[in-house]
Amino acid sequence: MDGKFERKSFAEINLDDPFFDSLKHDYGGDSPQSFIPWFHRKASEGKKALVFEDADGIGALINLKAGEAEEIPLDNGTVLPSVPRMKISTMKIDDRYRGRRIGEGALGLTLWTWRDSGSNEIYVTVYPKHETLIFLLEKYGFILAGKKENGECVYIKDRRHLDFSDPCKAFPFLSDNIQHAGCLAIDMEYHDTMFAASELANTLQERVDISVANGLKKVYIGSPYSLSFNVGEPVFIFRRYTGNQGKPGFKSCITTYCIATRIETVKSGGRALMSFDQYRRIVGNKSVYDDQQLRTKYDTLTNLTLIELLYYGYFGAGNNVNWSWLQNNNCWPGTHPMTLRFSREQFDKIMKRGNVDVENVIIN
């Protein structure tokens, strides 16, 4: 899968792409609200959408409308009040990407945008036949508020009512009950594939030649001699510079924060604790490694640990927190990144250094 998400103007998007056939069918007619007139209006207004495109054409499209304040009548006679909400006016993932986590990546980008908008609520309408999309929405904390008279389901997510027992449902917000955070060091060539949105200032994004889906779940595989975090806790991702240009202290840096969602010991002391097929099934398409590399690690490593992470956020170009700053600001509580267990005070300090609006990300 060769492709990427980017913001494109409606005028640049090919309306004749077969991707749009189902939208034309579901929202047909000549009214101003039907799909084709709506699309042309967006193009004339210079609006943009989030689009995933590859050699086969368009694979995903999301259009957002911030600050939407409208009443939403439901078929049971009730009306959702007119309050500011972010509206996902269009969200479609092509069927050819089913099981390849493009939808998860697209929803993640959408929820990051919603978080930064400051709106309490985000909503989307979807027909019941789109079961895969509904499953994804519910997985990430959207609640069915009711149905419209045309049969569309109205799904809403409210930052004031989040289920922090499930990192996916709470995404992209962190609970104010956080006490500690850990750290995971990843060599730069693998980091830049796993966490491609974590742009680095003044460095090249070296990439391994393996295609990884754009989902939010990532899997780390290695032989850490110890871990400083548990399932459910935040984890900083430390990009370990392995090049030979410049000073590593300024190039090795924290770029990303995640939540650990699963930790499995695959092998310990040379003894396999799960079969290769079990191990491969858990990894799925969430790793930078292909099947042969997974097999080699399974066969040759004496100790093997699998860590599943939910990609919660990134600092971005110019904001990544390098090793020198961590050392100089009492934020390096150990000798190796894998042993670092940050206090809540240190966690907040690093997040703020990464230019994260902590009060907007960590909430009650």
Description of the structure:
The structure is a single chain. By secondary structure, the protein is an alpha+beta fold. It folds into two domains: 3-161, Gcn5-related N-acetyltransferase (GNAT) (Aminopeptidase, 3-Layer(aba) Sandwich), CATH 3.40.630.30; 174-363, no CATH class. Helix content is 26%, strand content 31%. It has twelve helices and 19 strands. Strands 11, 12, 13, 14, 15, 16, 17 and 18 form an eight-stranded mixed beta sheet that branches. A seven-stranded mixed beta sheet has the order 1-2-3-6-7-9-8, with helices on one face. A two-stranded antiparallel sheet has the order 4-5. A hairpin with a 2-residue loop joins strand 2 and strand 3 (57-68). The longest helix is centred in the N-terminal third of the chain and has 16 residues, at 102-117. It is globular and about 65 Å long. Mean pLDDT is 89; it is low at 204-213.
pLDDT < 50 runs, ≥5 residues: 204-213
Largest β-sheet summary:
8 strands, mixed
Query: What is the total number of structural domains?
Result: 2
Globally, the shape reads: globular
Quick one: how many beta strands? 19
Radius of gyration: 22 Å
Secondary-structure-derived class:
alpha+beta
Q: Counting H and I runs of at least 4 residues, what is the number of helices?
A: 12
Share in helix: 25-40%
What average pLDDT do the residues reach? 89
Q: What is the CA-CA span between the terminal residues? A: 39 Å
